[in-house]
Design a protein that fits this description.
7-stranded parallel beta sheet; 46% helix; Rossmann fold; alpha/beta; globular
Length: 244
């Protein structure tokens, strides 16, 4: 098992890609903290894990994120891996984007990543070991419509990943990003994004729907010791959609 006895936090893990990541890290031997604003969903996701526990967190709140990190360190003595997956995925035409919407998306999808990294970096640097994986999106490569604030935030996650890798590498902490393509999560299937599957599949090298379980193995690798020489990278996990 790649992650035996490691302690990992996965945000936004109550469902979708985050839940698949939590299950994969658990299968690889990690103690997984299922962190989500949906407390009931986090409990349900953690209950099916062998070594899971649930923590309610609002990643846009400095206080909430700090309490989460303190709780994990108090209980386990360390934080080995952080997967920043929590995000809001909107569908809104550019002409309808106002400042309130923009700030809401940025606060969760980009500032939330900043707050979580800042909360876990000290125990990682003190231990001389850490794995941070930020879930970006291939929309930053495709320029996907009806998602302007989301694309901007995920582009920021990509740039932040590269900068953090430079800042933290000397302390044994790697920072990478994974960029999923259109994925058949509960949220996507309950939104207008579901109408894009046929078109997106025509652009992919592998012509089928992406599933949450397709994303998790790459994240697990980047969370492992095997990925110790990989940092500052964004890996598109999208069936070859953005190979063009």
């Amino acid at each position: 098992m790649k992650l035996k006895d490691r302690v990992a936090i996965v945000t936004g893990a109550a469902q979708g890609i985050g839940r698949a990541i939590a299950e994969k890290l658990d299968a690889e031997g990690a103690k997984v903290v299922v962190a989500d604003q949906n407390a009931e969903g986090a409990e349900q996701a953690a209950d099916v894990l062998e070594r899971g526990e649930a923590v309610e967190v609002d990643v846009s709140s400095e206080e909430s994120v700090g309490a989460m990190a303190d709780k994990v360190v108090d209980e386990h003595g360390r934080i080995d891996a952080l997967v920043n997956n929590a995000a809001i995925v909107p569908f809104i035409p550019w002409d309808e984007v106002d400042l309130e919407h923009w700030r809401k998306i940025i606060d969760t999808n980009l500032t939330g990543v900043f707050l979580c990294v800042r909360a876990v970096q000290t125990p990682m640097r003190e231990a001389g070991y850490g794995r941070i994986v930020n879930i970006a999106s291939n929309t930053v490569l495709a320029g996907t419509p009806n998602m302007a604030a989301y694309v901007a935030a995920k582009g920021g996650v990509w740039g932040f990943t590269r900068a953090l890798a430079t800042e933290l590498g000397a302390d044994g902490v790697t920072v990478n990003a994974v960029a999923p393509g259109l994925t058949a999560t509960e949220g996507v299937l309950d939104s207008p994004h579901k109408e894009a599957f046929e078109f997106v599949q025509s652009l992919q090298a592998i012509p089928r729907r992406g599933e949450s379980e397709d994303i998790a193995p790459t994240v697990a690798f980047l969370c492992s010791e095997e990925a110790g020489w990989v940092t500052g990278q964004m890996i598109a996990v999208d069936g070859g959609h953005t190979r063009h």
